[in-house]
Design brief:
alpha+beta, two-stranded antiparallel sheet, 24% strand, 70 residues, 2 strands, elongated
Length: 70
């Protein structure tokens, strides 16, 4: 999940070498069978000056909040 969050940040126009994972949370979901967990990953980095996030983000994502589900 961390690699996917980093890849989304890069697609949004963040400098590759500046990306840092600043939060990683695994929350157990007791109401689901098995060992289901909700994972939240927050990354931050420096935006490239020439990046225009409205053109570079994958469909369905917005700068600052990208959700990955499995």
């Amino acid at each position: 999940m961390q690699k996917e969050a980093i890849a989304l940040a890069e697609a949004a126009g963040v400098e590759r070498g500046s990306i840092t994972v600043i939060e990683f949370i695994e929350l157990p979901l007791a109401y689901l069978p098995g060992n289901a967990v909700q994972v939240k990953v927050k990354v931050a980095g420096n935006l490239l000056q020439q990046a225009r996030h409205d053109e570079t983000l994958p469909s369905g994502h917005r700068l600052g909040a990208c959700h990955i589900s499995r």
